[in-house]
Amino acid sequence: MIRYLAAQPWKFITAIALTLIATGCASANGESDTGIPPQDPALVTVGSDLYAAGCAPCHGQDLRGTDRGPSHLSTVYQPSHHADGSFLLAVKRGSPAHHWQFGDMPPIEGLTEEAVAAIVAFVRENQRLEGFEPYPP
Question: Whole-model pTM?
């Protein structure tokens, strides 16, 4: 194998270059290793304000949690485990403590489905950009 690479190093260099180009193209297209697609920027902006007002006191403005609630960047909140609809259900019905010991999350009054969709877009965009933290923290 070493003789082959030494005799034809251009093939090795070409393979490395193609891999780097393919990886760069994926990033340029907005893909990330989280598998979360880019979110609508306008929706993310609205969601950011709503999150700051209603979610950040417990989940942190940076989504990394507080002493009152868990991080939304935790791997537990990957779309494959907590789909977008689970956020809506948690807001409408509350959520019993089941991953952490912060206590039950009460229902949140006054948020429409559209508002929760904007919050989810904000959370997903941050997850896409930041990645996920391991669980347990």
Answer: 0.77
